[in-house]
Please model this.
Amino acid sequence: DKVQSKEEQRDVVQDPSARPSRVELVADENIEKLGMSFDGKPPGYIQVKACSAGGWAESVGIQPGDTIISVDGEDLKDMTSEDFKTLCKKRPVQFLVEQAS
Model:
């Protein structure tokens, strides 16, 4: 999958209030905590249960009900919960998030 620039993403979204269905988000080295909790754990896709006010997840637009599809390009459907925890602690770390409508 090609990572789109913000300008390209804006061109795809016709309605400015609409959220794109899938987005790739990166927590850089300066992010200490992700600021989100999950409903369940891999293997399998997991939903975001809650986001901390003012945390990284909230600041990049992640909302409760969104689904984490992959972490650092690794699909959650076949990932162990231990690998998921390890990847979530690493920085930078990239998430593919399917946003709830």
